[in-house]
Amino acid sequence: MEARSRIESPDVEREASTTVVSIHSDADIVAARQKGRELARSLGFSAGEATLVATAISELARNVVQYAIRGEVALWPVTSGRRRGIAISVRDEGPGIPDVDRALEDGFSTSGRLGLGLPGVRRLMDEIDIESTPGRGTLVCATKWRH
Amino acid sequence: MEEPKQGAYMEVPILKQGAYLIATVQSALTDGDLLKLRDTLVVSVSKHRARGVILDLTALDVLDSFSTRTLRDLAHMIRLRGAEMVIVGIQPEVAFAMAQFGLTLEGISTTLDLEEGLAYLDGSTKPNRIA
Amino acid sequence: MPNTRDQTAILSPPSVATVALLTELVSHLRNNRTHLREEWVRLITEAELLTAMSRDEIFAEATSVYDSYVEGLETGTLEALQSYARNLSERIIPRGVETHEVVGIVLLLRDVLARSLFAKYRSDFTILNRMLDAYEPAANRIAITVAVGFVQERERVIREQQEAIRELSTPVLQVRERLLILPIIGVIDPHRARQLTEQLLRGIRTNRARVVVIDITGVAAIDASVANHLVLTVEAARLLGATVIVTGLSPEIAQTLVKIGVDLGKMTTVGDLQGGIEEAERLLGYKVFPIGGTQGS
User: Fold this and answer.
1) Which of B88, B96, B130 to mutate: most C Cβ within 10 Å?
2) What's the complex ipTM?
3) I need a labelling partner for A56 at 20 to 30 A (CA). Which of A114, A136, C146, C247 fits?
């Protein structure tokens, strides 16, 4: 699936280079979240905010490892007017999420586990956008803006 | 319950201090490392007849839903073996992220650091202590 | 497609003819530097700009701006001018210089130089036009660069001041060993709420606090979002080994919050600050003796 999303409206601009981490093992989850923290700090986010971003990445990357075997995390800086922020996209070709809206509700659980952690990720980030086709894959995009 | 996959794991140092075990995790702790640590601690508690376990998370960069679930399992398993676990050293930023996410370590004792953790265990495991 | 790069940093690449014109222009400006600069300073004083600075200071800054201006025209890049503009802003903002003054003086310089071009080339309309064609876009870019640099610096200073005020207005007080008090006064927006929590958590670590009393008597409006944030703070504090006591939450407000779904179950609340402190001391194992009295009296 295309690593762009509805979140990238015309007035949000992708700046400069994108960092890509391919996700296959649990070590990749750690690598992706460390890169996320580094990028967030370099963009001027506080240590606290960078931890929110790293936690979101950790959660999303783990969904890939657990449900889709392999996938990709991309991170890049964005601007919108005078605001600066960080954008994350997590893409996989796994089984997909049948009901995205329910997955974003608190208390939803798949296969007896505690779900995909998506409501939590939404609380950590400012914007989240999920596109998923059962049998084809999932793309989660999330953005956090600096204060 | 999850099982650790085959592969290379980072050894988490576990020290024995009297009747307590102290495990100090490093920052780049993978899911596999955590599961291995869980199993190792449980075995060690039995083997050394430990009364308390201190898990030092000072260096841990992120605590997400998987780690939280695993830590709850660990606390439960340790309690089943007659010991008490206390988690110490969670960083303010990590605590904030957990709270924002909606994760709790309910039922697990948490203290600021190792010193507080030891004081806590001393208070709760010494049999004749007046509360 | 909007250009994400800083538009003002590089003037558009000039044609060969324009380069020749700009070279001639630049030497004209250099040769007449003394007289044009004085003219500019005279106009600045006449327009009553930069009144916060002395004449000598104005003259010194005018010299730097003039030279950077001409250099900008010559090299076609504005980096030197940008960093000078930032540097100048850092110095004059604390002196109370306003945006309209900075924009004003740059426009005056543009006019002074344009007039001198009129004077020099007035006998040949064609050459004058070509000179102005080369000069005007460059001059406009320069004006924008200096003005924007100044405004951005001002905004940065204002943000820092606001941040400092926020921090000052909510001190985390250590009154006893292991006990922190956080009195919150005023309106809490989401940004301030997050900042308060971060301050508190850092305070718990620094002071090794075991109990925190958060007093919200002075909070203007306690709605669901403030309450939820309080709950969040209580949870995060617990992860650092600290117990939170919330004071100043009236039973009526508490009831209302519970009705709209806020889970106050995990929060210890006491009516007033004094009661909260006493409860905190009890938790910490303190006994308080009234001065001159005996224990228990």
Assistant:
1) B96
2) 0.89
3) A136
